[in-house]
Specification:
With 207 residues, this protein is α/β, with parallel strands linked by helices. It is built from five helices and twelve strands. It binds zinc ion.
Length: 207
């Protein structure tokens, strides 16, 4: 079995979406003064590779810990959308013949560009493409940038269409080392309760 770690590293260089909580790590207790070493971590719930739960964009929506783990573990498909410039549209998705219940991850130019610094004009999901995925009834959707939605856009559908149908969104995937194809997904968000989202370690495996 091959394991692909598609999570972003978390440290003080981790790219944060503008306006989100900065990631800060400091020493809370240090040896030899203390008998153990402890760190203090301050971060937003949408830092690095993370999951958006319905509560993120749907009033009184389902929190992250109420989504069954079965949604986050199982077969998934990575689609090659590296030709998309700007929005990933319905016509980019249609040829992939996406079926109800599939876990769909999009690999775009974002992964090729890397995650060294914030890139304003990242590739995002178009509103009607979000409607298309929601209507198809995918189980889970993931994209390789810190937001699924175009920066500054008033079209909220990339969040609302999916989340109102209880389809969680993984944001901040790094798919640079993964080619399009079929994998097993293991996405394990930390077990904070009642939250609208949270960081996750995400891996893909193939036989
Ligand atoms: Zn998010």
């Amino acid at each position: 079995m091959k394991i692909f770690d598609v999570s972003l590293a978390l440290n003080e260089k981790t790219v944060i979406y503008p306006g989100n909580v900065p990631l800060e790590i400091s020493v809370h207790a240090a040896m030899p003064k203390n008998s153990t070493h402890l760190s203090k971590i301050t971060m937003g719930s949408h830092t690095g590779t993370h999951v958006d739960a319905p509560r993120h964009a749907v009033l009184n929506g389902v929190p992250l810990d109420a989504i069954p783990l079965e949604t986050f573990v199982g077969p998934c498909r990575v689609l090659d959308c590296t030709k998309s410039l700007g929005a990933v549209t319905v016509s980019d998705l249609e040829p992939h013949n996406i079926q109800a219940g599939e876990r769909i991850l999009l690999k775009t130019k974002n992964s090729e560009r890397g995650f060294e610094s914030f890139y304003e004009h990242y590739i995002y999901l178009a509103g009607d493409a979000a409607d298309y995925l929601a209507d198809t009834g995918v189980a889970l959707f993931g994209i390789d940038y810190l937001s699924v939605k175009q920066r500054g856009s008033k079209d909220q559908r990339p969040h609302t269409s999916l989340l109102s149908k209880n389809i969680p969104i993984i944001e901040g995937l790094d798919l640079s080392k993964v080619s399009a194809g079929n994998y097993n997904l293991f996405c394990l968000p930390l077990k904070f309760t009642g939250l609208e989202g949270g960081p996750a370690r995400v891996i893909l495996t193939s036989d």
